[in-house]
Amino acid sequence: MERTLVIAASAPVPRGNRIEITQVRQGETDAGAVTAVHDLDRGIRYRLRELPRERVDVWRAQVRECTVTDTARGPQTTLVVITADRAGDAEQALAEADAAAAAAKAESDRWGGADRPPAEEPQRFW
Predict the structure, then answer these.
(1) Contact at 8 Å (CB) between 85 and 36?
(2) Lowest mean pLDDT segment, chosen from 40-44, 81-85, 109-113
(3) What is the pLDDT, as a whole number, of residue 87?
(4) Is pTM beyond 0.85 here?
(5) Residue 107 burial (CB < 10 Å; 0-12/13-18/19+)?
(6) C-alpha closest to that of 60 among 108, 99, 21
(7) In Å, how far are 39, 66, 80 from 14, measured between CA atoms?
(8) CA distance 123 to 126
(9) CB-based burial of residue 61 (10 Å sphere; 0-12 exposed, 13-18 middle, 19+ buried)?
(10) Sign of dihedral through CA atoms 44, 49, 54, 56?
């Protein structure tokens, strides 16, 4: 699923990097506000404010697009991120792993595999 986040700070993150987003939980007065962005690939944490853990939700995504704009109210970062359904990702990864294992076994069987002893050469009389 694709989501767009607007952050009231300069938080440039390269396309393709994995990030961890900390947002205010639903039901709170400022629900949905981003409080921190952690670039997992570079190890950089952009923290906008501190809140108790019970007031925030943390989720992960991958950056598809990042735009940093200098506005009259200060810098603003727009992140377009891709989140994935974890159950669907796990099932797809397992299916791909099973298919890769089956293809490797078929290729091994076709070429004789490494578990067979080499064929003996016939003796020559001349």
Answers:
(1) no
(2) 109-113
(3) 46
(4) no
(5) exposed
(6) 21
(7) 9, 7, 11
(8) 9
(9) buried
(10) negative
